[in-house]
Design goal:
The complex is a heterotetramer, with 2 copies of chain A (380 residues) and 2 copies of chain C (323 residues).
Chain A (H helix, E strand, L loop, with lengths): L51 H26 L13 H9 L6 E3 L5 H6 L4 H9 L8 H4 L11 H15 L5 E6 L6 H13 L3 E7 L2 E2 L2 E2 H4 L16 E5 L3 H16 L5 E6 L18 H8 L3 H11 L5 H23 L22 H14 L3
Parallel strand pairs in A: 1-2, 2-3, 3-7, 6-7
Antiparallel strand pairs in A: 4-5
Chain C lengths: L2 E2 H15 L3 E5 L15 H9 E3 L4 H14 L2 E5 L10 H8 L2 H4 L9 E6 L14 H5 L5 E3 L4 H13 L4 E6 L6 E2 L14 E4 L4 E5 L3 H14 L4 E5 L2 E3 L3 H11 L2 E8 L4 H12 L9 E5 L10 H4 L3 H13 L1
Parallel strand pairs in C: 2-3, 2-4, 5-7, 6-7, 10-11, 10-13, 13-14
Antiparallel strand pairs in C: 1-8, 6-12, 9-11
Helix pairs in contact in C: 1-7, 3-4, 8-12, 9-10
The complex binds thiamine diphosphate (2 copies) and magnesium ion (MG) (2 copies).
The site of one magnesium ion (MG) has 6 residues of chain B, from strand 4.
Chain lengths: 380, 380, 323, 323
Amino acid sequence: MTDAANGQVPASTDASDRPDPLDFLPPDEPVHLLDPDGTYHPDPDHPIDLDDAALRELYRLMMVTRKVDREAINLQRQGQLGVYASCMGQEAAQIGSAYALGPDDWIFPSYRELGAALVRQVDAAGFLHLYRGTWLSDHDPYKHNFGLMSIPIGTQALHATGFAMGARLDGNPIVAMTYYGDGGTSEGDPHEAMTFAGVTKAPVIFFVQNNQYAISVPLAKQTAAPTLAHKAIGYGMPGYRVDGNDVLASYAVTRRAIDRAREGVGPAFIEAMTYRMEAHTTSDDPSRYRTQEELEEAAKTDPIVRMRNFLTKRDLYDSALEDAIEEQTKQVASEVRAGIYDAPHGDPMELFDHVYLDATNHFEDQVAQLRSELSQGGEV
Amino acid sequence: MTDAANGQVPASTDASDRPDPLDFLPPDEPVHLLDPDGTYHPDPDHPIDLDDAALRELYRLMMVTRKVDREAINLQRQGQLGVYASCMGQEAAQIGSAYALGPDDWIFPSYRELGAALVRQVDAAGFLHLYRGTWLSDHDPYKHNFGLMSIPIGTQALHATGFAMGARLDGNPIVAMTYYGDGGTSEGDPHEAMTFAGVTKAPVIFFVQNNQYAISVPLAKQTAAPTLAHKAIGYGMPGYRVDGNDVLASYAVTRRAIDRAREGVGPAFIEAMTYRMEAHTTSDDPSRYRTQEELEEAAKTDPIVRMRNFLTKRDLYDSALEDAIEEQTKQVASEVRAGIYDAPHGDPMELFDHVYLDATNHFEDQVAQLRSELSQGGEV
Amino acid sequence: MAVTMAQAINQALADAMAKDERVLIFGEDVGKLGGVFRVTDGLQATYGEDRVFDTPLAESGIIGTAIGLAMYGYRPVPEMQFDGFTYPAFEQIVSHLAKMPNRSRGTVKLPVTIRIPFGGGIGAVEHHSESPEAYWAHTAGLKVMTPGTPEDGYSMMREAIEMDDPVVFLEPKRRYWMKTDAAMPVTTEPARDAVVRRAGTDVSVFCYGPMVRTALDAAEAAADEGWSIEVVDLRSLSPLDTDAIVASVERTGRAIVVHEAARNLGIGAEVAARIQERAFYHLEAPVLRATGFDTPYPPAKLEEFWLPDVDRILDLVERALAY
Amino acid sequence: MAVTMAQAINQALADAMAKDERVLIFGEDVGKLGGVFRVTDGLQATYGEDRVFDTPLAESGIIGTAIGLAMYGYRPVPEMQFDGFTYPAFEQIVSHLAKMPNRSRGTVKLPVTIRIPFGGGIGAVEHHSESPEAYWAHTAGLKVMTPGTPEDGYSMMREAIEMDDPVVFLEPKRRYWMKTDAAMPVTTEPARDAVVRRAGTDVSVFCYGPMVRTALDAAEAAADEGWSIEVVDLRSLSPLDTDAIVASVERTGRAIVVHEAARNLGIGAEVAARIQERAFYHLEAPVLRATGFDTPYPPAKLEEFWLPDVDRILDLVERALAY
Ligand SMILES: Cc1ncc(C[n+]2csc(CCOP(=O)(O)OP(=O)(O)O)c2C)c(N)n1
Ligand SMILES: Cc1ncc(C[n+]2csc(CCOP(=O)(O)OP(=O)(O)O)c2C)c(N)n1
Ligand SMILES: [Mg+2]
Ligand SMILES: [Mg+2]
């Protein structure tokens, strides 16, 4: 184990075991398949195995996401939601990547993943109940393979890693993907998650949407790393970089990482370059930290326009499709409005029901107290 | 800021600002200047600006460290210390690196840095009081520019970083160096420390002694990184690698990183390849997890023998030096024994004195209680 | 001109920075944005990016570097953006900030003031309405204080920053918009002293931070029922001003503790334990606790049912008087 | 053949793994080394490296991945190597492990048992003798239990692992070498129940974990003075068995709580608060607390002066009887 001949004390892994570190480094430029005008640049390393219906579906999902997102902002303005964190501008990153997963794969999201949620068919109004405060979470994670939205930054990366470790142990060929932001890469938890994933070769994908800001803090104040993807080598996994406003590139890069993980090769890190078009949340005032010009520049990279241009060039886009999608987005938006406006207020007595799963009667007196307060107030 | 022309959303730092990432990667092999037989390989990138007295001093410091270390193990066996974490085998890494610091620079150590402590002239018996449990710490950090020994793994990396941020803010050209182990690289705190250091260009050196084990856990189970030094690029700082059993290489590599930091270029990470020759602590039983052969192989890379061979080849070592050092180590060892055996038992009433610096009388009754217990027991 | 609690704290930070150039402010979004509650608004513009700066998104990093900066000689005032996001920094706060001065036998001073907007009542999403004060108060070596008025927001903040001990400074976020006509700067009682906000003879109500206003409202309502409530604002949660607590109970014979935090092992437990230890023969009824329930903080639409309010306090007043 | 507490827990882990292949054990050095206290000794050899494995050195990582493994369907039994090293995992324990089942309205089950050797008395260096139980007990959603005997070490561990709720299982490290002649497996009372370890009529002494033995010794010594002490082992620190506590005080009229943790906001505060709430008219003396002091844990040479012992308990017994 030690190589006394030249007096060196080498690492306990043999040099021959070691993968070539340079393979873990990101390419100089993010992978990019679609120009803003829709021109497609095929890339043999990143093939697109999608038929016409699937290409249209990606577009449709982005359009629905944008519409629900807009509706959520309206609902917040109307006082129906307490707050909302928009994913506008990030639809391609989310939908391209989530679409690359198999049906049994899992997602461990942050609070901004409406697009990914819609790919997993999470009910849009249900998704928004977190923001309305009806209940802390509304969907059944096991029905959609979509974990609870995690608000404490980066913490869900560990849940994804543990889940993937479990799948690997169980011989179950599924992959877990976790989403977080550029800011999230600074927290200790994603660091520990990547460390565990590297060592256990857990089939987990760390998908980071680099939308340039953590609330008001720009990337340059977040890290001095050449790119976020350069972090991956430090955990013995590849760091990929992709143009996150290019839904095809997001799909293809993620797909490659997923296939690799499913084969048991190990985890991967993906940095998707994108831009947060809206305020951090509806409570935020971005005029304090970014300029109108910057925003206008960024708007020119809109992921939806780009995909529409591509579909048009391919003759996959026509007014029939346009009308159908418009119809559908309107429908979804009205369902969302109804789902929120008509939502039950939540039963206060349920507060005690899920604190412990094994029944315990230790807060009987508190249950009684609340019941009596409610009956006095006549509130329920 | 966004480059709409090709539809890419680049990072908010200009490409021209970015340093060449490859500069941050470690060399293929650790820097190594001395062969086990003492042959010296000059390296223009790592000059040794030490005169003969200094070369002898490095050797002397290693010898004293080894002796005090051995004495500490004896004292533990005699029941004088509760436990002790030996640095045997790691003397070159610690002493070479600490010797490279200027007098006003600071060290933020873990629990295993006896060698570094002796370079900073921390009293050896005082150092051991932590292990004896006389008091939680005995030396004055401001007298030696040597922080408190940190037992929770990796946490001191943040203190070093904050200190260095402070120095930079203050225009004070000092450098802070923090020591931790291979296992420590997995914790969240060093990750956050390197992130902060990278962004603020704090003059801090992360010096990791890769002694192959975290208690019983070998490096391969700690991380899948190609080497620990490959972590540095993820924070925008260079990752150096050095043969930690080569005191000259440890000195030279650290010196280079320190000079760079002092000039304001920013932090650096150093991985020193070494080997923990003793048990993790005196409470540990390493026979459970490593073989006698492995230990014997490692013993061949002894850093002290190597330096002695070098001095001999240079005609800097003779029996006069040998005798003088032997005399001195004996002297130090007997001082340590005396310092420990004669140590006061600690005044229990002092337990209340430093909890708050601004006096408060809120635990008066507890003070009274202890005083009464002591007088009843007649223990003090 | 009326001043809000948020403005009063902002003014205290500005004045502390003006007085002592060793004072530094940092955290997530405290710079250009001025903090999500605008408590650090304008400070970066006035004092520059060296003294008021945004950090990477890492709470352990914020507190750990604050410790290093304090060791260097600065007086850091780091912000934790919300109560629920202090937990990643728990290790640095509990094992290092609280212990290092003691561990060094007083050699190392850590004059760090951690600002934390805390508590519920603003309809926020999960993790944004926590009341973690008991975690800090149980930790020897930390001072824990919380203002219940804009005046205290100013004065206690100044005192916290000037103190050589580490302070966890809990800002009652739902009272950020509470106003006073008092002119700043203002000096109120020393932070270590509890203050009687309203004198009374029947029941002592102990409260702090966001619940001071609520307790005063309850006292007002109780007066209509003919009950005379004494409202005591604890202000310092660690150390507690036990003498003032006991003195009040000696006057009234009955006590209620009010806080948002869950009841189990909340500050109310310690206050009750001390009262019965020190004023056993004065008690005419058990010390009762009007608190949040022993459940995680509820979703926004249900918080009104969870949080202690005037009615919950009055219920207990009635119960206490029935003994 | 006598069995130590450490061996009893080891046996419980082995039996749980044999019974249910979803049980996983992991943490720092739990594999080949068998844990620094050898509590997991031999388990990796028997159950393989897939089910018993060493993790990287990262406590948040250990608990965070335990949550993910539990979501997948495993029943993880992670180890925190020492009490003082649980703090880096505080965020994952408090914000996720404790809250996720509630947040998901019961959909997500997290049957995780965190093993933590805790408490002082073994002459260890700093951070190795902490008593953090109040932090966990204050956190709704966690169950907190600690055995005071080898039999409970076995039986409560089996129960914890079979429970669907997250459990913080505190192992009193200075009692690891305490012996019993009872044969394993053994089934003791359900973990939720407090148990009267010695009946008495004059004063109730409530204790748990490492202090059970100490309280029994104190009761023995008190008998020589003619005082009859009832010793109640709380076992579950959250939820507390309030009924049993109150019943004991109704019998004796006097109560003392004993724990190593600092007094301020320790478990004793909550026990005292509940006793006076529920047994006000039965109390003939205030509930007193024999605890560690409100200071950081002392260096090894001074721990005997800091830790509660027979004398400190007897002092309080005498004080309680003097009322
Ligand atoms: C542990 C923690 N600290 C602080 C916050 C407050 N906070 C919410 S979002 C946010 C910025 C996140 O930035 P990034 O990770 O880039 O994700 P983005 O919001 O841009 O999608 C902050 C600081 C939090 N939610 N969790
Ligand atoms: C936060 C924390 N977790 C666990 C421990 C227990 N522990 C003490 S030393 C050690 C291994 C450290 O390994 P490494 O970082 O490689 O340093 P080395 O001991 O080899 O010098 C562990 C797990 C600790 N001290 N702190
Ligand atoms: Mg972002
Ligand atoms: Mg090591």
